[in-house]
Each structure stands twice: as structure tokens, then as C-alpha cells.
Design a protein that fits this description.
about 400 residues; alpha+beta; ten-stranded mixed β-sheet; 15 helices; about 55% helix; about 20% strand; elongated
Length: about 400
């Protein structure tokens, strides 16, 4: 410790004997760490926005179906409304909201075209708590109640059918007795969402849908939302225990693409960290080696005056510690300022079509990740010091006689 206290002021002064080299190293370290911290925040925000945008449409944080429904969603694989045990589990504090739906494959017919769709019967009051669709109405209105006999169509589907608000369309689907049900519906609302959702989902009242195909009070699914990610798996387990004869799944198994993307976002930052550190390591080693070569005479003189190899190693290591540490602090400040400047959100609506293809959110809200700031900053600092030990060890091994001769 006495050696460190003695050499610390000397190491700090040595850094500024060559300001250009010191500034270049500071830029390399600070920009590298800034990119890691900012991209960590950016990718986390992108992942959360993409997940929220997708799950808030129809998926929710999880769903409950009859066994076999997801493999073959048809009228024969429906389930009764939740019993007392399941209702109690669905009303648990960790579940924000839930809703029952009837979903069956069908056909929509206009004056000009016939297209295959999924017909969803919903309870508007419950649906508003679990889905963003009710807030995406761009023309007309949303459903007024479970017995509303109007129909809601997507913008793209309206265009393909060449129909519009106030027009009538015919829905057709299989009846409970195997025959074909056919009924005329008024288009009371048009919603704007992803093209896939607009093309394949039409909405009507839950009771209306049940009467349409004569299934009494049967439903196809129960969708639920859970605010906290850490409550997801325990809640799914509780629901599965409350309804052992039903198929309870979280969004991670319902939407494999989204789950894979979410996992990739978490892994990508470590890949980026490895790339950035590799580039930083090359710059740090190159800079420190040049410093050692330029100071060969100085190190030889210090050794001739009685400084031990261990002390030379400590001196050079302290210089690297101060230099990289200062660069790390600067990188943290730059990252914090960048994230703070985006506090009101980063609007990517100009790239809406591309984001829709990747199920991305259009407004990102980068947040400070204190754990990430500490972890990545310490990793960069420690790994930078370890990389700098090679030039330091080279300086410590210099022979005083050879160093003095090299100077002449």
C-alpha cells in the first residue's frame, strides 16, 4: 500500500506527459463503454416496446384453452366458462385483468370478395382491460356490449373486401351441429393495427358470437395480463393447478418468435460487449506498448536507481488503472446524458412498416439500468487493466544496462 501511495501521484503525472496519447485512449474507452451502456438501454427498451405492442393486441401474458384447441382450433374443441376455482385463481392480485373470448375460423363475404378470417366474440368491458384493439378504432365505434350484433373490421381487410363503415358483410362459420351458420352484420367500426391482425381478425359481441354458432355459453380462450414479469411463471403454475384439465400457457410458448427475439435482445448486449472490448483491447495494448517503447530510457534509469521490477510493474499498472478508470467514468456520464435526453421517448414511427415486420414498438423509452451501468463499467475497467498488464510486465522486465544503451 505504501508503494501504491508513493507511485500514484507519479503515475497520474506520467499520463499527461503525452496528452495526445492519453486523450486518444480516453476516447477509445469512453466511446466503447458509452456504446455498450446505451445499446443495453436501447435494446432493452426496444424489446419491451416490441413485447408490449405484440402482447397488448390479442395474446396477453398468457392464455387458457381446452386441451387440443391450439393444435386444431375448431368448434369441437371449446371449453365451458371458468368454474369457481379457476375464477378465484384469475382474480388473484398478481393478475391485472382477464377476459373470455370465443374464437372460431370463418369466412367474411362482401359484395365483391370472400376471405377467410378468425371470428372473435368478445366482452367489450373485459376486452378493454386486456387488449389495445378497442383503442385503435379509427372509424366508427367499438362494440357496446357482449350482445352487440355489429362487427369490427381491420383497415386492410376493409380495403380488400372493398367495403366500409355502415356497410353490411356476411359472416359464415361451422355450427355446433356441423351445418353452416350464416348471418349478416353491420360494420360498426374499423380498427388500425398490424397488417396480419387487420387481415385475419374480425370482432363481434361474445353473446352474439355464441348465438351465431349455437354454442350456448362455451368459449375458446381466456386471456390474462400480469404486470410483473417475475410473477408470470408462478401465476401460470397456479392457474394450471386450478384448472388441471385445461391447457394453460404463457406468452413465451404462445409466441415463439417473440420469445426468441426477447432472449436474443438479452444476449446481444454481451456479444456487443465482446466486440467492443476486443477493439478496445487492441487500442489499449497498442497505446501502452508505444508508451513503454518511448520510455525505455526512463525505465532503465529507474531500474538503475534501485527501483525493483515489481515497482515498475505497479507504476505502469497504476497509469493504466487511472487512464482506463477515467475513461470509464467519462463513458458512464456520456451514456447517462444520452439516455436522459431520450427521457420523453424515441419516436420511430417514420420506420413503422419495417418495425411492423419485426413486431417492433414505434416509441421507445430507454431507462437507466443501474445494474448494467455498474456491471459493464466494472467489466470494462477490470478487463482493460488486465490487458494493460502485458505492456507493464514488459516494462518491468527491461534490463537497466540494455535500456540505457537503447537510449544512446
Amino acid at each position: 500500500m505504501n508503494t501504491v501511495k508513493t507511485f500514484a501521484p507519479l503515475a497520474w503525472r506520467n499520463l499527461w506527459r503525452n496528452p495526445r496519447r492519453t486523450v486518444i485512449t480516453l476516447i477509445v474507452v469512453s466511446v466503447g463503454l458509452w456504446s455498450v451502456l446505451f445499446f443495453n438501454s436501447f435494446l432493452t427498451a426496444w424489446g419491451e416496446a416490441s413485447k408490449d405492442a405484440t402482447l397488448s393486441l390479442l395474446t396477453g401474458q398468457g392464455q387458457i384453452h381446452a386441451v387440443g384447441y391450439l393444435n386444431d382450433p375448431n368448434i369441437e374443441v371449446l371449453m365451458p366458462p371458468p368454474n369457481a376455482a379457476l375464477t378465484k385463481a384469475l382474480n388473484a392480485p398478481q393478475i391485472k385483468a382477464w377476459a373470455s373470448r370465443l374464437q372460431v375460423p370463418g369466412v367474411v363475404v362482401s359484395e365483391y370478395k370472400t376471405l377467410a378470417v378468425n371470428i372473435l366474440g368478445v366482452d367489450p368491458a373485459s376486452e378493454r382491460r386486456v387488449s389495445a384493439i378497442p383503442d385503435k378504432i379509427v372509424e366508427g365505434r367499438y362494440l357496446n356490449g357482449a350482445d352487440d350484433d355489429g362487427v369490427i373490421l381491420g383497415v386492410s381487410l376493409v380495403d380488400r373486401l372493398k367495403t366500409g363503415l355502415g356497410r353490411r358483410v356476411i359472416l359464415m362459420s361451422q355450427n355446433v351441429d356441423g351445418s353452416l351458420s350464416e348471418q349478416s352484420f353491420d360494420v360498426v367500426g374499423i380498427y388500425d393495427s398490424t397488417k396480419e391482425t387487420e387481415d385475419f381478425y374480425v370482432f363481434t359481441g361474445l353473446t352474439t358470437g355464441q348465438k351465431f354458432i349455437n354454442v350456448k355459453d362455451k368459449i375458446a380462450q381466456i386471456v390474462f395480463t400480469i404486470p410483473l414479469d417475475q410473477d408470470l411463471e408462478p401465476t401460470v403454475a397456479d392457474l394450471a393447478q386450478a384448472a388441471p384439465d385445461l391447457d394453460v400457457r404463457s406468452w413465451k410458448t404462445l409466441s415463439l418468435f417473440l420469445a426468441t427475439t426477447d432472449s436474443f435482445m438479452q444476449s446481444f448486449i454481451y456479444i456487443w460487449l465482446a466486440v467492443v472490448f476486443s477493439l478496445m483491447a487492441i487500442g489499449i495494448v497498442n497505446t501502452q506498448l508505444m508508451a513503454v517503447f518511448e520510455r525505455t530510457h526512463e525505465f532503465g534509469l529507474l531500474r538503475a536507481l534501485g527501483m525493483k521490477p515489481r515497482q515498475v510493474l505497479i507504476l505502469v499498472a497504476l497509469e493504466s488503472t487511472f487512464l482506463i478508470g477515467f475513461g470509464v467514468l467519462l463513458g458512464m456520464v456520456l451514456a447517462a446524458l444520452t439516455i436522459w435526453s431520450l427521457y420523453d421517448g424515441l419516436d420511430l414511427s417514420a420506420f413503422a412498416e419495417g418495425l411492423e415486420m419485426f413486431q417492433g414498438g414505434q416509441v421507445l423509452f430507454p431507462q437507466y439500468d443501474i445494474g448494467g451501468f455498474i456491471l459493464f463499467s466494472l467489466l470494462i475497467w477490470l478487463m482493460g487493466i488486465l490487458v494493460a498488464l502485458w505492456p507493464a510486465r514488459r516494462a518491468a522486465k527491461l534490463s537497466p544496462v540494455e535500456a540505457m544503451r537503447h537510449a544512446t
